[in-house]
């Protein structure tokens, strides 16, 4: 088959693929646009939610909610009950809450693991620097000790001066 330019369709496709090997392919277009979100802000939100889910306040709120739900749907008149005894709607709500809470908690844990890993690497680098500085200072102190041991001390100088003084006094006494 030949297209409107007079080129065979199969050959043109092969040439187009061969000519564009140095260019990246365009990503395929999605039927629906992808939602754009900031992963950092979403991560912070998930950490706040996970932090709240792990508090006593959440447990008290959930307990009060369940008690109100169960008492309303068992003690209220039959026409006012919206979720009779097997409490299927309550089960659905709790399942949805758990299905959202679990990934948010995992996301918060992953972010905390990443922060811990970064903190560990920084601590390790700081410890390596501290060890290097300590070894340097140890070598400097050892060098100073060696240099000081070669210096004359005050007692050594006194004893040498006394010895020289005795020699001079001895020579004077010997020369009458």
Question: Keywords, please?
Answer:
elongated, mainly alpha, 176 residues, 5 helices, 74% helix
Descriptive notes:
The protein is mainly α and 176 residues long. 74% of the residues lie in helices and 0% in strands. The chain is built from 5 helices and no strands. The N and C termini lie far apart (138 Å). The mean pLDDT is 86.
Oligomeric form: single chain
Q: From the alpha-carbon coordinates, what is the Rg to the nearest angstrom?
A: 43 Å
Give the biggest beta sheet: none
Number of strands: 0
SSE pattern, N- to C-terminal? HHHHH
Task: Report the portion of residues in β strands.
Answer: under 5%
Give the CA-CA distance, first to last residue.
138 Å
Average pLDDT, all residues: 86
Name the overall outline: elongated
Give the low-pLDDT segments. Answer: none
Which structural class do the helices and strands define? mainly alpha
**DSSP summary: helix tally:** 5
Helix proportion:
over 70%
How is this structure best summarized?
By secondary structure, the protein is an all-alpha fold.
List the helices and strands and how they pair.
Blueprint: H1 9-19, H2 39-53, H3 56-75, H4 88-150, H5 154-174
Helix pairs in contact: 2-4
Protein name: DUF1003 domain-containing protein
InterPro entries: DUF1003
Keywords: Membrane, Transmembrane, Transmembrane helix
């Amino acid at each position: 088959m030949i297209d409107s330019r007079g080129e065979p369709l199969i050959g043109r496709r092969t040439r187009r693929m061969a000519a564009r090997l140095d260019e990246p392919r365009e990503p395929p277009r999605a039927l629906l646009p992808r939602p754009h979100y900031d992963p950092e802000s979403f991560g912070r939100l998930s950490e706040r939610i996970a932090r709240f889910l792990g508090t006593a306040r959440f447990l008290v709120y959930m307990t009060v909610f369940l008690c109100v739900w169960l008492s309303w749907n068992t003690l209220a008149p039959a026409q006012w009950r919206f979720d009779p005894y097997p409490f299927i709607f309550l089960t659905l709500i709790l399942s949805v809450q758990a299905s959202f809470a679990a990934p948010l908690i995992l996301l918060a844990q992953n972010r905390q693991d990443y922060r811990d890993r970064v903190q560990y690497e920084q601590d390790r680098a700081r410890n390596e620097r501290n060890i290097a500085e300590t070894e340097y200072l140890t070598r400097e102190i050892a060098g100073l000790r060696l240099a000081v041991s070669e210096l004359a001390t005050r007692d050594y100088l006194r004893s040498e001066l006394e010895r020289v003084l005795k020699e001079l006094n001895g020579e004077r006494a010997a020369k009458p």
